[in-house]
């Protein structure tokens, strides 16, 4: 008969074993990326013996990538797009969400329904007519096209509205009686209270815009308009055997997202949980 | 006299409503104008386009259902639909099981829990171009470490080493990659679901002599039903939309997919931007729309069911 203690020990061991395997699966690709980014191309696939840290780390890969392709231009474009899209998204959605959550007006439900109905509509279904429309506006091959495309999502409005609904109406009522305008209530009461929702929306938008591939692929054609993702993919296609350089570029493309994610991750986890379950 | 007062009252009430509406619309306008122009208009146009023949330059021709009739006979379309469905059928249950498993483990009091939770997210926030480039190297048919392990440790002969990015294996690859990428994200949703199950249920179960498996089977699983349902719906919809994963893993240096890895969104893209068959492309898009709509309707029905329980 196995004692209770032994059984507990066994189950704990199995638990940690599973966890260790899962961790390895999650993290090994990233370690491989880091390790390869400081290797020579022929060292990358050297399996016998395989070393994680080469004797002479080739830091030059991180320098070369900037000169082989206009990487700096890509970074500039991506940073610009990400900041503008995220800023616009947060500003306009929190603004609109305030009306949907706290104000009464004609056609409110009808307008909100238009938002809700499109959440179930994948962008891929209407990306072609959207492109034709943008092209007729003269936005083909313009960074502005990506901004128009991503800054006004229904999802943002929905997420912010859900959060505002959880803030008691009595707060707004009290402020109204004190003579505060609706704009004042939005700016001085609602915005400061909605930090978690703003943080969540920031991460979602930031990560989505930074990592987007299909949108820029459709719109951004000329070299000096390309984003990091497009540029990196083009580099991979062109120099498919320069493994060290590819990995160095990949590592660099990850750094900003990881920083933003780590800084705001507490909210992110809450945000996914609440939008997912309540949505 | 009395009617004059009520007239004035009505007018002032009207003015107040008008002012209220104007304030509200001023809040909505910045977002709604962008949303209406860049989302609502193209959506309307997408439905029309599916019944037209247009290359973007020459005059538009109305063709009725011809685009859809052509779809049924198009072997590339059928392949793309089939692959998308096989991919979804493989990815959804595997991701469900792994993310649920992870959530249950990370819901326990173990050391470094926060660290593991954060780690699970890395594959999800990392850029696809970056992580797929690692995968294509790790699974490289002649040089990659995975095949090296098969060769050195399992004595698989060189000519029998699998080529992971072509033929039937490519879908397996897409599924494995997607499970890896998505499991951390859905784990968080399961973790949230686990918090909603009352602790007392487990205590009562333990007192009644239920073992770990029975507690899982009769308390955790039923308690997680709404979450599981929601996760399956979200996952399925995301799987239907697969594009970049396929292009980056199986597209090679020309970004083109063959019949074995063709997916719906790729076929939409290809018909529109390579062949400029805009109407036909929109017909494919309608098929994607119907797939997603079906799943969404199932979700609505399910949600009202769980709300009643």
Q: Which helices and strands, and how do they pair?
A:
The complex is a heterodimer of chains A (279) and B (309).
Chain A lengths: L3 H34 L3 H4 L15 H9 L2 H32 L5 H12 L3 H14 L6 H8 L3 H12 L3 H9 L4 H12 L1 H17 L2 H6 L8 H11 L4 H36 L1
Helix pairs in contact in A: 1-14, 3-14, 4-7, 4-8, 4-11, 4-13, 5-8, 11-14, 13-14
Chain B lengths: L1 H48 L2 E2 L7 E2 L3 H8 L1 H32 L6 H13 L2 H11 L6 H8 L16 H27 L3 H9 L4 H12 L1 H16 L3 H7 L13 H11 L3 H31 L1
Antiparallel strand pairs in B: 1-2
Helix pairs in contact in B: 3-7, 3-10, 3-12, 4-7, 5-11, 7-10, 7-11, 10-13, 12-13
Q: Report, as a whole number of angstroms, the end-to-end distance of chain B.
A: 58 Å
The amount of beta strand of chain B, in percent, is under 5%
Question: Biggest sheet of chain B, open or closed, and with what strands and sense?
Answer: 2 strands, antiparallel
Mean pLDDT of chain A: 87
Number of strands of chain B: 2
Please report the first level of CATH classification, the CATH class of the largest domain in chain A: Mainly Alpha
CATH 2nd-level architecture of the largest domain in chain B: Orthogonal Bundle
Q: Uncertain regions of chain B: pLDDT < 50 for 5+ in a row?
A: none
DSSP helix count of chain B? 13
User: Given the helix and strand composition of chain B, which structural class is it?
Assistant: mainly alpha
CATH superfamily of the largest domain in chain A: MetI-like
Task: Tell me what portion of residues of chain A adopts beta-strand conformation.
Answer: under 5%
Q: Give the assembly state of these chains.
A: heterodimer
Low-confidence stretches of chain A: none
CATH topology of the largest domain in chain A: MetI-like fold
């Amino acid at each position: 008969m196995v004692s209770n203690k032994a059984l507990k020990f066994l189950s704990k061991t199995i638990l940690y074993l599973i966890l260790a395997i899962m961790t390895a699966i999650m993290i090994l690709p990233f370690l491989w990326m880091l390790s390869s980014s400081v290797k020579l191309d022929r060292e990358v696939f050297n399996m016998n013996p395989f070393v994680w840290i080469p004797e002479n780390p080739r830091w030059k890969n991180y320098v070369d990538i900037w000169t082989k392709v206009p990487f700096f231009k890509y970074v500039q474009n991506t940073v610009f797009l990400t900041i503008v899209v995220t800023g616009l998204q947060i500003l306009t959605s929190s603004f609109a969400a305030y009306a949907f959550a706290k104000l009464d007006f004609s056609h409110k439900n009808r307008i909100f329904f238009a938002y809700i109905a499109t959440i179930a509509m994948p962008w891929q279904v209407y990306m072609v007519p959207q492109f034709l429309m943008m092209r007729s506006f003269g936005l083909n091959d313009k960074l502005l096209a990506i901004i128009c495309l991503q800054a006004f999502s229904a999802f943002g409005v929905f997420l912010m509205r859900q959060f505002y609904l959880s803030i008691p109406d009595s707060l707004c009522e009290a402020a109204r009686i004190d003579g505060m305008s609706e704009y004042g209530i939005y700016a001085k009461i609602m915005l400061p209270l909605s930090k978690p929702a703003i943080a969540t929306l920031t991460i979602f938008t930031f990560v989505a815009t930074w990592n987007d591939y299909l949108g820029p692929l459709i719109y951004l054609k000329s070299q000096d308009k390309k984003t990091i993702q497009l540029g990196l993919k083009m580099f991979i296609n062109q120099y498919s055997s320069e493994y060290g350089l590819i990995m160095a570029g990949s590592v660099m493309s990850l750094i900003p997202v990881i920083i933003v994610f780590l800084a705001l991750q507490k909210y992110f986890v809450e945000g996914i949980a609440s939008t997912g379950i309540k949505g | 006299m009395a009617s004059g007062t009520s007239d004035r009252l009505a007018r002032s009430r009207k003015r107040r409503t008008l002012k209220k509406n104007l304030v509200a619309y001023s809040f909505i306008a910045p977002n709604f104008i962008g949303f209406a122009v860049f989302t609502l208009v193209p959506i309307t146009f997408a439905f029309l386009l599916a019944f037209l023949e247009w290359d973007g330059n020459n005059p538009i021709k109305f063709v009725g259902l011809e685009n859809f009739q052509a779809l049924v006979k198009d072997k590339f379309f059928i392949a793309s639909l089939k692959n998308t469905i096989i991919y979804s059928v493989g990815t959804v249950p595997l991701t469900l099981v792994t993310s649920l498993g992870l959530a249950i483990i990370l819901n326990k009091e173990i050391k470094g829990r926060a660290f593991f939770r954060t780690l699970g997210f890395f594959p999800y926030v990392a850029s696809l171009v970056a992580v797929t480039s690692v995968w294509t190297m790790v699974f490289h048919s002649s040089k990659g470490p995975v095949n090296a392990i098969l060769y050195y440790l399992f004595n698989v002969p060189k000519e029998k080493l699998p080529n992971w990015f072509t033929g039937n294996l490519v879908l397996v690859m897409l599924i494995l990659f997607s499970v890896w990428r998505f499991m951390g994200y859905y784990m968080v949703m399961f973790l949230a679901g686990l918090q909603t199950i009352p602790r007392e249920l487990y205590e009562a179960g333990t007192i009644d002599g239920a073992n770990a498996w029975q507690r899982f089977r009769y308390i955790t699983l039923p308690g997680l039903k709404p979450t599981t349902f929601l996760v399956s719906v979200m996952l399925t919809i995301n799987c239907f939309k697969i594009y970049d994963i396929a292009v980056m893993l199986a597209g090679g240096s020309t970004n083109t997919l063959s019949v074995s890895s063709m997916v719906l969104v790729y076929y939409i893209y290809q018909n529109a931007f390579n062949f400029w068959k805009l109407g036909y492309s929109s017909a494919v898009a309608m098929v994607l729309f119907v797939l997603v709509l079906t799943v969404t309707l199932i979700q609505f029905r399910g949600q009202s069911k769980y709300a009643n329980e």
